[in-house]
Amino acid sequence: MTVSNSTPKILDALVIGAGFTGLYALYRLRERGLKVLTVESGTGIGGTWYWNRYPGARTDSSSTVYQYWFSDELLQEWNWSERFPAQKETERYLNFVADKFALRKDIQFNTRVTRADYDESSARWLVTTQNGERFSAQFLVMGTGGLTKFVMPNIPGVEDFAGESHHTARWPKEPVDFAGKRVGIIGTGATGIQVIQTIADKVDHLTVFQRTPNYTIPMRNLKLDDAARAELRASYPTLKTRVHNTFAGFEYDFGERGFFDTPPAERRRLMEELWQDGSLSFWIAGFREVFSDERANREFSDFVREKIGARINDAAIAAKLLPTDYGFGTRRVPLETNYFEVYNRDNVTLVDTVSEPIVKINAHSVTTAAREVPLDMMIYATGFDAGTGALTAIDIRGRGGVLLKDAWSDGVRTFMGLQVSGYPNMFMVMAPMSPSAAFCNVPTCVQQQVDWITDTVEFVRGQARGAIEPTAEAETKWVAHHNEVAEATLVPKTKSWYMGTNIDGKKQSLLVYAGGANVYRQLCDDVKKRGYEEFTLT
Hints:
30% of the residues lie in helices and 16% in strands. It is of the alpha/beta class. The chain has 3 domains: 9-149 and 385-537, FAD/NAD(P)-binding domain; 150-214 and 334-383, FAD/NAD(P)-binding domain; 217-333, no CATH class. Strands 1, 2, 3, 4, 5, 6, 17 and 18 form an 8-stranded mixed sheet that branches. Strands 7-16-8-9-12 form a 5-stranded parallel sheet, with helices on one face. A 3-stranded antiparallel sheet has the order 13-14-15, with no helix packed on it. α13 (442-462) packs parallel to α15 (517-529).
C-alpha cells in the first residue's frame, strides 16, 4: 500500500464502523461538541445488518429490546413489524436512525481502515485507509464489531470450486437463485441454521456438512399490530431501566430461586413454560446454575435433547443432530424455526464431518472420506474470528510502535474490554473481556459502553489532558478477575468461538465477561465515581 503524503484531516474523534456502535458513538460524541467522523468499509449503514443479508437472517433478541433508548421520539415513531425482526427490517431501522438524527453527513463509506498509529508527542492517532487517506484524531473509537472478520474453512481445494460460492458474511445484495440447484453448506451454527431452514424447500437438493450439532430453542415469532405496538410502547419507560439490570441485557432474567431448592416437578414446569415462550428466556431466565453446575446443566441438556429428538423421524439422523459431548448453553444457543424438520425431507442429506471428514473441494463436487457429493453451489457458514479478529486485522500500533496483534500474541489483555494499556485514547466496544462480546443483548451493552466512553472523553477534555489509558496493574487485575469469573462457569470446558477454538493457533480463553451485564455496568460506573484512579492521564 502506498501511503498518501497529504495532510491528515484533523478530528476530535474518529469512529470506525457504522453499525449499532458507530451510529450511537457518532451521535453521543457529536452531542458533546466534538468534531467526529465515522468511517465504514461498506457502502451503507448497518454493520452486521448490512453485511449479513443471507437467507433467513434475523435477530434472536426481540424488537422489544433490540433498539436504542436515547430518544423518546424515536421509540414512538419506529414501528416494528414482528417480535424477531429480519435483516432487512433491522437495516431499515438503523438507516431511519441515521436519517432522523442527520448522522449520514458525518459518515464516510467505502473507507476501510488499514492502520492506526499512536503518536506520543501529539497524543493523537494517525489513521490510514486502504486508499492512503489519513486522519488525525485525539480519540479513536473501535466500533468494528465482535463478529466481523469472517473465516473460510481450511479445506484443500476451496479456491477450485467452479460453481456459485458464497460466504454468509458477504452475501450478495442481488437475489440468489436456488431453484434446481444442488447446494452444499458447511457450518451449522446460528447462521447456518437460519440458512438451512430457509432454503431447504427452494433447492433441488441440500447437503449439510455438520461438524458440531447444536442445542437450539424454537423461535415463537409473533407479528405485531398497532395494539401490540401500543402495549409495547407503554412498557418502554420500565424496559429502559430493566435491561441494564439483568444478566444479559434482556427484559428477562434468572429467577431468584436456586435450582436444587426447587422440586423436580416445579423445575420441569418452569422449563416447559420458558420453552413455550420461544425466546432465549429458556437459556437466561430460568436458573443461573445452568452456567455453573454440571448436574443442573445436565437436566437442561436432557430436556432440550428430548425436545429435539421428538422432531426427527429417522433415529440415525437424530443421533447425529443431538449434542452429547457438551452441555446446553456453553456454546451459542440459536433460535430456529422448523430447523430439525428439514432433515425429514427427501431432498436433504446430513453429512457428519467428524465420522466422515471432508477430504477436498473440487470444481463441481465435495469429496468426503466416504463419498463424492456433486454440487452446483457452495455456502460457507463458517463463522468469525470473534472478539479479536476485527481489531487485529488493522495494523494498530500503540506506545513504542507495539502492534496490538503482537501484544495479544500470548493472550488477550484488556481493561474491562474498553481499553488496552499502552494504547491511549483508543476505546473499544464489543471487545474481549466485556459482556457485549457475547453474553449480552447487543444494543443494551453497546449503549452502556458508548455512554461510558463518552463520559470518559469528556472527563479527559475537562481535565485539559491529552490522553487516558489504564495502568498495566489495573489491566492485570481485570484479566485476573475476568478469568476467575470464567472458571466458575462451565463455558471454558466446551470448544466454541467463545473460547477461540475455531481459529487455528488462537490462544484459548473465554472472550466474554461472564459476570453479567448488570454487574459489569456497576463496575464501570464505579470506575467513574472513583475518578478514574485505575488510569493514567497525560
